Amino acid sequence: MSETATPDAPARPEAQPPLFDLLARSWSLGAAIRDVAIDKAGKAAGFALEDGRLALMPVEDPESALNRIRVEADSGRSTIRARQKPVAAPILTPVLAGEAPMLAPSGMVGLIAAARDGRIHRVTPRGQVIQIMAKASPICAIASDSGGRIALARDGRTDLHEEDGMARLVGLLTPGPANTLAFAPDNRSLAVMLEENLLFGQPRQGYDSYPLGGSGPLAFSADGAWIAGSNGKDGIWLLRRADGGIARIGNFRAAPGSIAFSKAGDAVFASGAFRAAGWSLATPPIGDEAAGALRTGRSGLVLIEKIAAHPDRDLIALGTADGAVSIARIGQPEEMPLRQADGSPVTALCWSADGVHLAIGTAAGNAALVTLPPRLFK
């Protein structure tokens, strides 16, 4: 049986709320949020809670900001009417893991939630929990593709499974556990990041090895031409698949906790600095880490903890260590403040596939789905 959480009280209709309250649905979940994922159909956002549960919110909003915009006929000025009804409470699953579950979009329906002890569940957008693996064999990392396959990293091996029935398809022996897994956009190739090296290839045809190890995020560009990963210490690396060209970028203030490729901006960004750290892929920093550097957003006194690139526009969302969230245009110094700082780090940040919704989670257990009308960025 699922539970429900109590949403934050709605803003008073007699006062003009700030932008965040006009655009966002927000909830207090009572446990730290460690990750967020949106299912492939764009139906639900799932927030992984530190107490082992998953909180689900429908992406579709019956009282969406898109429907509350009014354009004055004489001036063309846009205003957004305040929300009239309280937001619906999210669905909370039972405890699925001993800590925050690892998340991946399901190739069938909803999300995959994996516990490090080996239990794996599929969770539908309406909160139905279906156990698909009960094997007590510890899992270190998980990834899924859009073809219904799941990659699981265990100590000394990475296995590829069919999600439907979890039949094992093929395995890869590794010198220790993989820290992060990621499928290429074409769904044929898999990247396996270990402490000291990166293995990349097609599971049935073999892997190439690169001296690009680390821990933390691992990401592909939209066209699959680039792979980027965190070294788990003070920087990131970039691998150009066409020729094996490698860029290493260091001197971050903290280990980058998120990496994002911008398709529209042809650029890559990483958190872990006092401003958005980004580089153009047209002039990549191979051999010179200053090459292609993009000055985006403002430099401040608070670290960027999470960063997410808009799927279609040259925009990035920035979440800081004090809880603030803003949106910046790539290569421009201006930022649009979205969420005010509240002292709790932003721990999860994710755009919906259509770029209309931004999911936000914090270490204090505050979750939000922000609907961003396209006219805001014209």
UniProtKB/TrEMBL annotation:
Domain Anaphase-promoting complex subunit 4-like WD40 span(s) in chain numbering: 311-370
Signal peptide: none
SUPFAM superfamilies: Soluble quinoprotein glucose dehydrogenase
Gene3D superfamilies in the record: YVTN repeat-like/Quinoprotein amine dehydrogenase
Residues annotated as transmembrane: none
UniProt-recorded name of the protein: Anaphase-promoting complex subunit 4-like WD40 domain-containing protein
Native organism: Pseudogemmobacter humi
